[in-house]
Structures are given as structure tokens and as C-alpha cells.
What we know:
The protein is α+β, with helices and mostly antiparallel strands. The chain is built from 11 helices and 11 strands.
Amino acid sequence: MGEPTNWIDEYFKSDVRTVLAEEQLQVPGLRILAKHTLRNAIPPLNWHYHENAFEITMCTKGALSFSSTASNYKISGGDVFITTPNEIHSTDEVPLSLGEVYWFQLVTNDPSRFLFLETAAAEMLIAGLNGIAAHVVKISAKESEYLIQAFHFARSESNPYVVASFINLFLHILILASKKTKFQLTPDIGKSLNYIMDHLTWELSLDELAAQCLLSTSQYKQKFKKQVGISPRNFINQQKIELAKSMLLEGKSITETAMGLGFNTSSYFATVFKRYTFYAPTEFLINQKGKEERSRLWE
Length: 299
């Protein structure tokens, strides 16, 4: 792990990424509120922290990996990843893959200036946040709308009291959700996941997977995404690419790996590989070799 930095986000706006800072938000305690739509993988986040601020990241599409100094965490649609003030975290050299995330940072060291709340109400809410034990909390699509609406109103330069109200509601929902029992997969989707993992070298058909679950294809896709957090095709591709990494590192050629995983052509495989890892297969191998050499230097 390199030397962690105090990461400070600044105002930024593009067609895929919008970061609203304190100057735009005008909500006490809300340092930033942002959204990023990841159409292709982007470089990994280095080890960093946010001084005196919680960072709360909600994944609405796709799947992402995060790490703290204690453990690694996988989040997908419906998951919220929480880091506490000054907690060091990163993606541990894992690029951010396809998906969509909303995130915000909260400074909680002054309850008298927190989301326009009275001090007693602010103290209760902050205590609830500090009481969340897990780094990952699952919420429903309906519950995620409160944060989406907060971003929508903030981006349209709406009344900051409206933005604060939506953030306040979202935080209360998050605290309640953190106390619930984790959702379990239904037997059909659980079996489908096992089947996918056992047959990654096959060209897997969603129609066949749905039939195994006694569901129509549309029902299967909807049920799978609701429980797993990402679409079945996205999940299959992610797992194939993870296996592809191992095959390439074992010395198999790009063509051999592509054919062995059911891709029609090596060029299509390379396109999918880069979409999920940020690197072309050859770049991935060069990068891994560089990591191994750096590790040997530190031994």
C-alpha cells in the first residue's frame, strides 16, 4: 500500500460524471454529492481517506470492488459502501468496472451545522451513522430513489433545503437497513449461480438458464438482477474475465483463452476484457509483470 492521501473532490461536470461541491450545494455538513456512469472500466482508486468525513457510495448498476485496510468488499446494484471519517480505503489496484454510482461525503463534527437540522436531531442522526457496523448495506431500488432525487435537485440548483431533506431521509433508511438480516438468494437463483460458475467455459444462453429456473427469460433476468444486483449477462462476463486473467497468467494465449471461454473471436474477447478491466489482455500481462517485479524489489 502506498502512502494514503487526503482526497478532496472538486466541482466537475461531464456527460458521464458530475461532482457537486460545497459551493454548489450550500448544505451544511454536505461536502460533495456526485454521480458517475461508468460505460467502460477506469483506472483503480489509490489508497486515500476523507478528512473528518463519512463517504457513502451507492451502486445502482453494475458491480464494483472496494477495499479498506481490514478487508475487501464487492458491491453491486442496491448496495451501499460506507467509509468512516479518515478511514483509509481504495479499490486495491482493481479498476472500476461498468456501472453507475452515486456518492456523497458528510462532515459530522459539528451537529449545530448539519443538514439544517436542530442540534438534537443532528446528534441522533450522527450517532446512528456511527452505529453502523458493516461497510456494506443493502437497500431496495425504492429506497435508493431518495439519494437519486437529492442529486437530481442539487444538479438542477434547487432549494438546498430540499436536497438536505432527501439526504436526511436516505440516511435514516440506511441506518434502519443496516439492522436488517441480510437477504438470502432463492433456491432457483442460487442454483443458477452455481451452474454459471461451474460452466464458465461454455457459451451460456440466458434462455437455457431461465428454463432451468422454470422462468421466462424476462422473469429470470428481472429476478436475477433483483437478488444479485447486476444482470445475468453482466455477471457471466465478469466471472469469465476473472477466469481469463488466471488463464492468461498461466501462459495460455489470448486466442486460446478466448476460445476456451466461449467467445466467438479473440478480438471480441479483447474488447470485453478491456471493458471490464480497463486493460487490453496484453496490457494486463505487462502490468502484472510490473507488479511482480516491484514486489520482488520490496522483498
